[in-house]
Known about the structure:
The chain has three helices and no strands. The protein has one domain (14-78). The protein has helices at 14-23, 30-42, 51-78. The protein is mainly alpha-helical. Helix 1 (14-23) packs across helix 2 (30-42) and helix 2 (30-42) packs across helix 3.
Amino acid sequence: xxxxxxxxxxxxxxxxxxxxxxxxxxxxxxxxxxxxxxxxEAQKNYIPSSDRVRREYAYALLRExxxxxxxxxxxxxxx
Length: 79
């Protein structure tokens, strides 16, 4: 996952979580990001506790999920 300052971190299980939300038809939204955060925490990923940093983390996750959805839509069009 990449942050706005170009910092990159590895997040265990993120692709699987996004694939599950995609399969459920969940749009990129704040609710979806909260679900992703909850699932990542359940999988023992470090999620910052600071409100400011958590918001940045959520923003980065939302951007990643939007990209994931866009990539899936494009790959479906190619079929």
